[in-house]
Design a protein that fits this description.
The protein is α/β, with parallel strands linked by helices. It contains 17 helices and five strands. β3 and β4 form a beta hairpin. The N and C termini lie far apart (about 85 Å).
Length: about 300
């Protein structure tokens, strides 16, 4: 005979303490969409709360819904209430179980939740088994948390910096992260711009003066990088005459083609979790591939223009 399990209860919204880690990943657009959905359909995704021995209620899942309900002035809500009398370990395990069932909250939030679980005493092996993740995936998420400057994290918590942008900032040296993030927020730079600037800073060939400009004046540095890319695209008519001999160019093209084909075969068998280990290298390669594509397309454009000119 099937057993009926129902832990849904009506609770006072004001009695539920929000989850600061989950709150860091909730942006205004998500809250507004959630408010609209609640007004039309009601609460679609029921929040999950944990009740401690003291009677305190702590949110385990559904920060967006809780925020939306508060802003709508709703006094009571239905929530799944579970016992977390065992303390931080029980709460951490339940939170990990919930993120394994629901959509990904983002690498930064995942790392923070994992760190809370580790601090509470949950063994890493148990975390891996609960989430169905590899040891490298767990390590990468935890290292993201340790790399991120605490002041940058406070900016995320305060809603000034989006978590995805903070993940990019974490790739910078710790001593420049806050200065860069502060300028990026002040100048309203999107994630795509932040990603480009961080990639430029991490490029081994980037001069010290440009690195300093990326941190101190990111918008101007972005313009400078864009101008440089346009210059590369435009090319130089004298470059082909003074560049490498044709046989060297042909050899490099053949070698690059073979290596690219081999790399495609290797990467096609890499899982998303394993790819986390090569994230920075892959992004650097992506930047160089885009630059190479720009040069190739520019060459084809110039060849076509010359053919058309001769034909005319």
């Amino acid at each position: 005979m099937a057993k009926s399990i129902n832990k849904v209860k009506e609770v006072d919204v004001s009695t539920v303490a929000g989850n600061k880690t989950l709150a860091a990943t909730v942006d205004r657009r998500a809250v507004e969409r959630c408010k609209e959905a609640i007004e039309k359909l009601g609460v679609v995704h029921t929040p999950v709360i944990g009740t401690a021995e003291s009677g305190k209620r702590v949110l385990l899942s559904g920060q967006c819904e809780l925020t939306a309900l508060r802003e709508l002035g709703v006094k009571k809500m239905e929530a799944i209430e579970v016992d977390v009398a065992g303390g931080g370990v029980v709460s951490a395990k339940l939170t990990l179980l919930l993120i394994s069932l629901q959509g990904k909250p983002g690498a930064l939030c995942e790392g923070l939740l994992l760190q809370e679980a580790v601090d509470a005493g949950v063994p890493r092996l148990e975390i891996q088994n609960m989430l169905g993740k590899s040891a490298s995936w767990v390590s990468n998420r935890l290292s993201l948390v340790t790399r991120l400057d605490s002041n940058v994290y406070e900016m995320v918590k305060g809603g000034l910096l989006e978590p995805r942008s903070a993940e990019e900032v974490a790739r910078l040296p710790a001593d420049v992260q806050f200065a860069f993030a502060e300028k990026a927020v002040r100048e309203g730079l999107p994630k795509s711009a932040i990603e480009s600037l961080v990639a430029g800073y991490k490029d081994g060939s980037c001069p010290g003066a440009v690195k300093a400009q990326i941190i101190g004046n990111p918008r101007e540095a972005l313009k400078r990088m864009s101008d440089k890319r346009r210059a590369v695209n435009a090319g130089s008519h004298g470059q082909s005459k003074t560049g490498a001999p044709p046989d060297i160019v042909a050899g490099m093209l053949k070698s690059a083609g073979m290596q690219t084909a081999a790399l495609c075969n290797v990467l096609s068998g890499v899982s998303p979790d394993e790819a986390e280990e090569y994230k920075n290298a892959l992004r650097g390669l992506e930047t160089r591939i885009y630059a190479l594509l720009d040069v190739i397309r520019n060459l084809f454009t110039r060849v076509k223009m010359e053919v058309d000119h001769c034909g005319g």
